[in-house]
Write a structure and sequence with these properties.
The complex is a heterodimer of chains A (about 325) and B (about 90). Chain A is α/β, with parallel strands linked by helices and about 325 residues long. Chain A has helices at about 45-55, 75-85, 100-105, 120-135, 145-165, 180-190, 235-250, 255-275, 300-310; strands at about 15, 25-35, 65-70, 90-95, 110-115, 140, 170-175, 195-200, 230-235, 280-285. Chain A contains nine helices and ten strands. Chain A has a six-stranded mixed sheet with strand order 1-2-10-7-8-9. In chain A, strands 5-4-3-6 form a four-stranded parallel sheet, with helices on both faces. In chain A, helix 2 (about 75-85) links the parallel strand 3 (about 65-70) and strand 4 (about 90-95). The chains are: A alpha/beta (about 325), B alpha+beta (about 90). The interface between A and B is large, with 47 and 24 residues.
């Protein structure tokens, strides 16, 4: 396929079947390979939509500076688009993220402000809001509350999935900003009666939940629980097991959060088999494994790999 | 056997530093009342008069109870209840 520029090639990713991990001919799993996007993650969709919307609304003018709290992938996508469009980008990122994320951000020209590991992305959001207040001319796109994030998935990701898999019965994705699940969930509910919309939420080590008190918890403004039908917490051991199964049995080299998503998808598959009903379960492979090689996720025993993830923001 | 309840770091002041405590009851609400009898004040940090507090997530065997029966979610011996603060991703 031919495109005028790199950003024009965002989306239209493949949906591939999992012949070995699917339990039967009637209960099938399908992976939406979002690592095929320009920077290698699903966040390219949200980044492009948020920048387009900000330009349309007159918030961004040539030479503007964008600031964004991110655990990495959204920042990398924003950095790629921002450079094409002539904006500067400042990312506020927790220090307990993989080295590759930092390298990629710097390669695409972003500058990084590190936030403390304790508190994870919650702390990055808090720090970014503080910096934005000190620089009123900077633009915070704020992926957690930006409707263009959800709209990217409502207008692109979900229609692509439905076109490729009209018989879809379940949609499974990761829960971070909630943009993917809100956008895809709303679109698919409008077109597929009875569809199940399932969230897989990464469960990190204790450091990440190290809040000073419970009132400092964080629920993204985009989140609407009524879009979901179930929500599962998936720990690093299960996420790593499934990440490895994905590459060993199906050849798909995915990031660790995709293993967590597959874990929830396999749970739905097991339930369908037990109930004796047909199921076509589409799940998101949010990114490839490249950015997580340094975490040791793909080598040694699962116990060793899980221990190495302790305290890391692995999704 | 009982129900294992995993406590987040910030609530361990109520459990003498224990990461997990044992509880009994037929529903999540019963278990929280049972826990509060030995760990006074813990229940109030998880629920208020409207139900589960906004920034607290509770999972039974890794499934979010808000999509099950809420506080009336049935639990049985051998189940694991996990309490976690809400965090962001992205």
């Amino acid at each position: 396929m031919r495109y005028d520029s790199l950003v024009d090639s965002v989306g239209q990713t493949p949906l591939v079947g999992l012949p070995r991990l699917s339990p039967s001919a009637d209960v099938r799993l399908w992976a939406k390979l979002e690592d095929h996007n320009p920077t290698g993650s699903i966040k390219d969709r949200a980044a492009l939509f948020m920048i387009d919307a900000a330009e349309k609304d007159g918030l961004l003018s040539p030479g503007a500076t964008i600031i964004e709290p991110t655990s990495g992938n959204t920042g990398i996508s924003l950095a790629m688009v921002a450079r094409q469009r002539g904006y500067s980008l400042v990312c506020v990122m927790p220090e307990n993220t993989s080295i590759e994320r930092r390298q990629l951000l710097e390669m695409w020209g972003a500058s990084i402000v590190f936030s403390a590991a304790a508190g994870g992305s919650n702390e990055a959001v808090r720090v970014a809001k503080g910096i934005a207040a000190e620089h009123p001319d900077w633009v915070m796109l704020y992926q957690y509350g930006n409707a263009a994030n959800t709209r990217a998935h409502y207008e692109t990701t979900a229609p692509e999935i439905l076109a490729d898999l009209p018989s879809i019965t379940h949609f499974v994705a990761g829960l971070g900003t909630t943009g993917t699940l809100m956008g895809c969930g709303r679109f698919l509910r409008e077109h597929v009666p009875g569809i199940e919309i399932i969230a897989a939420e990464p469960r990190y080590g204790e450091l990440v939940y190290g809040l000073r008190n419970l009132d400092e918890g964080f629920v993204p403004e985009l989140y609407d629980a009524s879009v979901l039908t179930a929500r599962f917490s998936v720990g690093p051991a299960e996420a790593l097991l499934r990440t490895r199964e994905l590459v060993e049995q199906e050849g798909i080299f995915a990031g660790i959060s995709s293993g967590a998503i597959l874990h929830a998808a396999l749970g739905a598959a097991t339930k369908a088999v037990e109930a004796g009903v047909r199921a076509d379960i589409a799940f998101i492979v949010a990114d490839g494994g490249w950015k997580y090689l340094s975490t040791g996720a793909y080598g040694g025993t699962l116990e060793e790999a899980a221990a190495r993830l302790e305290g890391q923001l692995w999704a | 056997m009982a129900i294992e309840v995993r406590i987040p770091t910030i609530l361990r002041t109520y459990t003498g530093g224990e990461k997990a405590v044992a509880g009994d009851g037929g529903t999540l609400a019963d278990v929280l009342v049972d826990l509060d009898s030995r760990h006074p004040g813990l229940r109030d940090r998880i629920v208020d008069d409207k139900g589960l507090r906004r920034f607290v997530n509770v999972y039974v065997n890794d499934e979010d109870v808000r999509f099950m029966g809420g506080l009336e979610t049935a639990v049985k011996d051998g189940d694991t209840v996990t309490v976690l603060p809400a965090v962001a991703g992205g």
